[in-house]
Input
Amino acid sequence: MTSTDKTKPDFKFIHLADTHLGLNWPAIGRRENIQIPVYGKAFAAVIDAAIKHQVDFVIHAGDLVNRAHPPTAAWNRILQELPRLREAEIPFIITVGSHDKPESYFDKAGGDVLQILDARLNLVKRVDTDQTPRVSVQTKAGKKVSIYGLGDHGREQEEQLRELRKQMAGDTDFSILLMHGTISDIPRMVGAAVDPKTIGALLSQRYVDYVAMGHNHGRWEHKDLQIYNPGSTEITSFADATTITYSYDGSKLTEEQREPVEHGYYLVEVKGEIINAQFQALPTRDVKNIQVRYDAATATEVVDGARLAISQNVSNSGIIRPVLIGTLHPAVSKSDINVSEIMSLKEKLLYLDNPLLTNLNPPKVQLEAAEGSDIAQPLNQYFTATLGQKAEEATRIATTLIELYARKTKTTHQEALSEIDRWQPHD
Output
């Protein structure tokens, strides 16, 4: 919901998620190109924005770090940035994400990263149903805001949310549900999901006024309800990167579609009943999926199309994954494709991933003959590539069976079986 009211809001806050501090993706085999600092810089940019806009508080929807034992670089960044918020008297409220939680028995006995930052260092307020389900904040204007933390509970999050609902009280000016999870309406959903009707009921009955989600790394917001997912602050895999789709016909490369994925955070202003959540995009690395579509392509055409598409997106900072889709010529298999020729372009990029060939397949032989068409020619072409000297015989039996079934008589099936019985292929 947006507002054109220019008067001062009652309070402001920032909503971010999935910073994954300590992640090194992609793992580039050159020390000077280690990617860990990229995630720290994105986190620092959000802290800068919080101080610049003098927000009343910051909420983080989980996965502050990439693993329960973050590397020194991640700790350095945390201990560099969070004290800045404390000095500015801006509370940092966070719920536990799937990457924040230790897995082993012995690690759990010592608590998690967020507990250390909360109880030991007083840099964050950790909120989730396992320990402290509610945190209250007093804004500069004297408004009382309650943040309810769902945390990460996988398949149990629906049940946990129903239990959390019992603790929601009406003794506050504004309530936020902070969850490291998702609802089933989200495209490209990852993991277990809460029923959108459950969330909708909380909003319509005014148990909560704003739902802050995390976990899914692509930005998403509900069209009608105050449900927001900012996505990760930086690209964490090719799954949350921009995809550019081309088609290649053997001579010409054509761009068909471009699907950008934004990363950033929400700057939220609240005035009375008006909630103005504005997405603030952060600059990210030059990461792309370069998808090339083929139709009955030869191995050479596959290589040429991939190289041409990659070349159009070359940069010294480029991180690219080639995704090759469509069909191959009947005489071609995936093993014929010279992947090393495609990978030779890696010297022009920061990183080039191995081409993904999963959806590049031979054409399917259609067993329905169109009226007036000569099905024998493509069948013979296919069988020549796959059966060699047996092609003529295989073509004959295949066309005979197609013609029999095209008649759709009561005796078709029996005639087909008789024809198969008479077929004696040569060794």
